[in-house]
């Protein structure tokens, strides 16, 4: 099996002192309250797990969190890429209330000894939920900082016992024809498919996400369950997953299918490897000032190099973009 232990523990600079963490927790609580005051729906608490906006706290994991100021709830939930609901940033928030997130099952199959179909409410309880603040860098040149709630994808993969033939993990996302207006347009080959190499999928930073800001994931952010792979461009973090398949050969993702020369399998954030039509050297942090605010420099592996660079030792990152 191709499971490698990360060579480095998180660098001490990545570890958040408890006091700072506490003040950040307070900051987040304030932001959540502000969001509530700004009109989070009152039905939010009625049907606990199923409704976006219901409480879903996770235990803070400072070792796997960045110190950047989290992007505001409003921006995180209204500036989205979820092409099944339309290609404009405001369309997912407008139309995703139609998405049916219950009942919901996720089948985990392929090169595994114990294939299983999990109910979403079973998955929610499979491991203690953690609160981890990650950077998200979109290939389009913007970034956000999001306090996700979830647990490592490896926890789920270990449950099904990958065989020695498993080298890649493929994620298929939901296709609800009547509820997803974007599916009428052949922008991508539907359903949306993404994939990781098995050792990437087993890396503890690869997060199975059920919530954000201590609340159940809003539909537009990929309810009821999505990925967050913080060292890769955002498109690798598939939303609303219904099937996980362990396979021997490298799968073709929807984005590779659409334009293989623009969207590679690896999609590791890399300021030195431009997209064929634009530079990837800088990014605009959503919510940070206006048009004239200087852009930020994009970091190799989105700033997670200490943790993940060892996965790619000896690989040509320009050829394997
Ligand atoms: N099913 C699905 N997953 C998806 C996408 C999509 O269009 N469909 N867009 C991707 C892209 S390009 C990005 S940047 C992130 C955005 O996640 P967010 O809206 O929660 O910030 O979701 C990714 N996952
Ligand atoms: Mo993206």
TrEMBL record:
Posttranslational mods: Predicted to be exported by the Tat system. The position of the signal peptide cleavage has not been experimentally proven.
Gene3D superfamilies from the UniProt entry: Oxidoreductase, molybdopterin-binding domain
Subunit-level organization: Heterodimer of a catalytic subunit (MsrP) and a heme-binding subunit (MsrQ).
Gene transcribed to yield this protein: msrP
Coiled coil: none
Task performed by this protein: Part of the MsrPQ system that repairs oxidized periplasmic proteins containing methionine sulfoxide residues (Met-O), using respiratory chain electrons. Thus protects these proteins from oxidative-stress damage caused by reactive species of oxygen and chlorine generated by the host defense mechanisms. MsrPQ is essential for the maintenance of envelope integrity under bleach stress, rescuing a wide series of structurally unrelated periplasmic proteins from methionine oxidation.
Residues annotated as binding Mo-molybdopterin: 80, 83-84, 138, 173, 221, 226, 237-239
One Pfam family from the record: Oxidored_molyb
Annotated protein name in UniProt: Protein-methionine-sulfoxide reductase catalytic subunit MsrP
Recorded family membership: Belongs to the MsrP family.
PANTHER family: PROTEIN-METHIONINE-SULFOXIDE REDUCTASE, PROTEIN-METHIONINE-SULFOXIDE REDUCTASE CATALYTIC SUBUNIT MSRP
Catalytic activity line of the entry: L-methionyl-[protein] + a quinone + H2O = L-methionyl-(S)-S-oxide-[protein] + a quinol; L-methionyl-[protein] + a quinone + H2O = L-methionyl-(R)-S-oxide-[protein] + a quinol
Record-listed E.C. numbers: 1.8.5.-
The entry's keywords: Metal-binding, Molybdenum, Oxidoreductase, Signal
Annotated cofactor note: Binds 1 Mo-molybdopterin (Mo-MPT) cofactor per subunit.
Cofactor(s) the protein requires to work: Mo-molybdopterin
The organism's place on the tree of life at top rank: Bacteria
Domain Oxidoreductase molybdopterin-binding: start-end pairs: 99-255
An annotated GO BP: protein repair
